[in-house]
Specification:
The protein is of the alpha+beta class. The protein has three helices and six strands, in the order αβααβββββ. The protein folds into two domains: 55 residues, no CATH class; 55 residues, N-terminal domain of TfIIb (Single Sheet), CATH 2.20.25. 21% of the residues lie in helices and 29% in strands.
Length: 147
């Protein structure tokens, strides 16, 4: 039973990783496309997509055909998978508590503290996540519904 709980997810993750990072072929030229790393792909993602990546909601991969400029952005669920624990190296680190340390305002970004615990070795850690300032896009609109 322990094999299914600890080792099988690692084997499954390895197989899925092979599929995820297999080179994509451009539909226009038929040549392999280039996969950007995390730093390079931010130039092609929207602010909302970048926020999703920082909050572990989704992970995005950006593939580009440099000859034609054709780009492909693929989204993967980030919250369904546990993170890799720094102590035991198993994918068993999960968030169990989060709290807002600094509430965001219109001018000042906020701060979210997430606490993680490893279900295998019991390791605990805390990570801080930046929250974007509140949007003033709808500031002039009334919060009351129209009757």
């Amino acid at each position: 039973m322990l094999t299914l709980l600890i080792y099988y997810p690692k084997i499954l993750e390895k197989r899925l990783s092979k599929i995820r990072f297999k080179p994509r072929i451009s539909p226009k030229t038929g040549k392999p496309m280039r996969l950007f790393n995390e730093d390079e792909e931010d130039a092609y993602l929207t602010e909302e997509m970048i926020a999703h990546e920082l909050d572990y909601v989704y992970d995005y991969d950006v593939w580009l055909n440099e000859e034609t400029g054709f780009k492909l952005i693929e989204r993967y669920d980030g919250h369904l998978h546990a993170l890799i624990c720094d102590e035991c190296r198993f994918r068993t680190l999960k968030a169990y508590k989060e709290e807002i340390a600094v509430t965001p305002t219109h001018n000042i970004p906020g701060l979210l503290k997430k606490q993680f615990r490893c279900s295998n070795c019991g390791h605990r850690e805390e990570r801080e996540i930046r929250i974007d300032p509140l949007s003033t896009k709808y500031e002039g609109e009334s919060a009351q519904p129209a009757i």
